[in-house]
Structures are given as C-alpha cells and as structure tokens.
Amino acid sequence: MEMQIISGSCHRKLAQKVSRYLKIKLTPTQFSSFADGEKYVRIKRKVRGDDIFIIQPICPPVNDSLMELLITIDALKRASAGRINVIAPYLAYSRQDRKVISREPISAKLIANLITIAGADRLFTIDLHKDQIQGYYDIPIDHFVGYPLFAAHIKKQNLKNIVVVAPDVGAADRARKMATLLQCPIAIIDKRRTGHNQSEILNIVGEVKGKTAILIDDLIDTGGTITSAAKALIIEGAVDVKICATHALLSKDAVEKLEACPASEVLFLDTIPPTTKKTSKKIKYLSMAKLLSKAMLYIHLNKSLGKLFTWEDKVTKL
Ligand code: R5P
Q1: Residue to substitute in 220, 257, 266 for testing ligand 1 pocket (most ligand atoms within 8 angstroms of CB)
Q2: Residue (of 257, 255, 264, 196) closest to 234 by Cα position
Q3: Residue 183 sits in the same domain as residue 52
Q4: Cis omega before residue 61 (within 30°)?
Q5: Structural domain tally of the chain?
Q6: What is the CATH number of the domain that holds 241?
Q7: Residues of the domain holding 168
Q8: Counting atoms of ligand 1 from 1, which one is nearest the CA of 129?
Q9: pLDDT at residue 70 greater than cutoff 70
Q10: Do 109 and 176 sit in the same domain of this protein?
Q11: Residues 50 and 185 reside in one and the same domain
C-alpha cells in the first residue's frame, strides 16, 4: 500500500511541513464550493488500494471544515482507497460530550458517528477535551497529548520553584502528568461554569505563593477561563504565570485578554491555523509537525506508536 497525504483546505501549512518531513508530495486535490456554499472535493490522483492520510482539523469555520472532511472521506471510499486515516489534530464539538441538562445533544458522539459512517478507518487526534471521547468511536484512535512538548519548552528555561496548575478539576490529570515530567507540585483551580464560555473561580487548591505557575489547558477559546485563572494566581502570590494550551481557538477578544493578563508567555501547538490576524508578543506556537510525521509513518508501517509516547515511561518510572 502506497502512502499518500491529502491536505484539506483548513491547515495546509501543517500538511506541507509533514509532507516535507516525510518527503511525500501532497496528493493534488480540488476543493471548491457551489454558489450556495455547498462543498465540492475531487481527488486528482488514483488512490485505489493506497494508505491515505487526510490532514484536516475541525476548526473554525467548524461546520465547513467538518463537511469538507466528510465528503473527502466519501470521495476516497468511493475511489477504493485501501485505508482512510483521518488526521484531525483538533476536533470541534468535543466540549459537548455529555448531557448536563435535559434536551441537550451529545454532539461529540454525533461527530464520531459521522466520521465513522463516512468511511474513516482510523483517527489521529491530540488533546481531546475528555479522554473518554475515544470510546465514542468504534474505529482505532491514536490520541496524542501536547503537554510533553510544552514541558520540554519549559524545561529549557531552567525555572526554579514552579507549580503546574490545572485551570479546572477536569484538567487535573493532564496537570499531574506534566508536573511529573517537570518534577514539581500541582495546584487545581476550583471553577464553576456559569454558561457557554463563562466561568467563576471559587478556590485554588495547592500552594502557588512565590512560585512560577504553569497553567495547562486543552484549549483557549474566548480566553475568559485562562485569563481569570492567571489573575487569581497572581492574587494568591504567584510571581509569574505561563500559559500552555494545545488548541488556539482565540475567538472574539481572546488575544487582547491574553495580552492584558498577567501571564508572561502563552504557548500553543499548531493544531489549527491562526484564527485571527491579531497577535501578541507573548504568544508562541510550538509545532507538532515532526511528531505527527513520525506517528503517520509508524501507522503506515503498522509499527507500535509506543516509542512516541516516551513521556509515559517517564511518568511510570517516577
Ligand atoms: C473548559 O473546560 C476548557 O478546557 C477550556 O478551559 C474552555 O473551554 C476555554 O474557554 P474560554 O477560553 O472561552 O474560557
């Protein structure tokens, strides 16, 4: 089975980096829209029997990205592709992973059904909002995590007296694993959600006074959660705050909020392309392209991906 890489129209820059690492040219593909906005996709090379990797995060505009992904999978299935691997570094709708009040959807499950029924054989993603979403899929999922890349960056700064902080209870597990890599304690912010993109900080569990606090979250959307957390940490006596978040959704005035908040550095991964032209000197993007290229090659060769999870060994050993 020959390996082929298709870039959806969402994140060509990431796909191009991966294509350079793997020395495989992107498969020519046509993406266009009808006048009413209906999407059209055509793969311009034969794919019969081949191992196809589609790189397409489901990112803003989320519904267009999703539909384009689904019809690309459909085109590949109908062209007899050997195996269809979806590389969706960010999966929108993951925040709607359970019913909290009556008459709500579980959109994360619906997305899983759509991707599976369209014909995907495998999904690669990174930092799902909740690990349990893996169980919504009946196809294999390779679920990677971003904190080791952030931990490596922080380690290079040789900071003394650090604490990793989870901005809510749901992020505690991620914070604990990152703290294990950085060999430092953790703290947890007790947050109450008051609506979509709205929350209120109730308490900080753990010692942050006199320390550099490293906040770790899966995503920053409007920036409300993380900037309130940064302010609360400074009020509690932290000397500096660094923010790490995998997915930079950066909606509305998120960049302004990050610029104005007391954090000195804001780190993201390049799981999605920039969603805004606004920038801040504090914001840096670390690339996941090298790790992704290796993962794709291992998947193609049916090699275990365990080697790429080297941090798991460290977490177990410590
Ligand atoms: C919440 O559970 C998530 O992990 C993020 O903290 C949240 O969705 C971020 O949203 P915003 O940036 O709008 O506060």
Answers
A1: 220
A2: 264
A3: no
A4: yes
A5: 2
A6: 3.40.50.2020
A7: 147-286
A8: 4
A9: yes
A10: no
A11: no
Q: Is 284 a catalytic residue?
A: no
- Give the C-alpha separation, 178 to 19, whole Å: 30
Task: Give yes or no for residue 317 having a pLDDT over 60.
Answer: no
Same-domain check for residues 135 and 189: no
Bridge partner list, 312: none
Given a cut of 80, whether residue 25 has pLDDT beyond it is yes
Out of 191, 211, 242, 257, pick the active-site residue: 191
Residues 302 and 281 in one domain: no
Pocket of ligand 1 (CB under 6 A): 95, 167-168, 170, 197, 217-226
- In this prediction, residues 103-112 reach a mean pLDDT of 98
- Tens of pLDDT along 27-42? 999 999 999 999 999 9
| 191-209 residue pLDDT tens | 777 677 667 777 999 999 9
Q: How confident is the model at residue 117 (pLDDT cuts 50, 70, 90)?
A: very high
Tokens of 267: 């780190």
Same domain, 258 and 136: no
Please check whether residues 294 and 238 belong to one and the same domain. Answer: no
Give the position of tokens 């550095």: 265
Each residue's pLDDT tens digit, 225-268: 999 999 999 999 999 999 999 999 999 999 999 999 999 999 99
Please give the mean pLDDT across all residues of the chain. Answer: 94
Residue 39 sits in the same domain as residue 120: yes
